[in-house]
Amino acid sequence: MAIEKDLNTYTLNQGETFIVDTNVWIYLFSPFSTNSFGYQKFLSEAQNKNCKLFINSQIISEYINVICRTAYENYARTYRLNKNNFKFKRDYQQTSDFSHYYQLACESVKNEILKHSEILPIKQSHIDSSLNDYDQMKDYNDLLYTKMLTSDIKIVSHDRDFGNHPEDIIWIHY
User: Fold this and answer.
1) Residues 80-115: tens digit of each pLDDT
2) pTM confidence score
3) How far apart are CA 78 and CA 75, in angstroms?
4) Are 155 and 170 in contact (CB under 8 A)?
5) Superkingdom of the source (predicted)?
6) Which domain holds residue 123?
7) From its phi and psi, is residue 119 left (phi > 0), alpha (psi between -120 and 50) or beta?
8) CATH number of the domain that 123 lies in?
């Protein structure tokens, strides 16, 4: 069963390694975030203790997509557009609003997230293991991240799903 640690009481050790889930980056850097849930403190402490923070291509993709989808929701609400008629790909992606938020999200990855993290490549073995153990979690990306964890790498996520993972992963959150 997952080993849950609360960042309010957890002490980061010098040089620890973590995969940092999308939701943490969203809380920290999304233009739509209204609360960092304390993760700014985690980020600062991790930097001070020379911790390694990892992301992967899935986390980058999720981050950009969440920002663009949130912008779409806001745009549709602001202009009172019916989303049955005003589709994300067909219509919203053609707007300057989409271009603005897509660029903003990509720049945020380059200038903020990658400034604080490194890419941890997804290996074939991670994918195979995730597909074989699909029943362990209902979110494939989250399951994939757990397969990338080792005894030295923990996951930092605000996602409660990790608490139900059947293996002894270490899940840290506020």
Assistant:
1) 999 999 999 999 999 999 999 999 999 999 999 999
2) 0.93
3) 5
4) yes
5) Bacteria
6) 3-173
7) beta
8) 3.40.50.1010
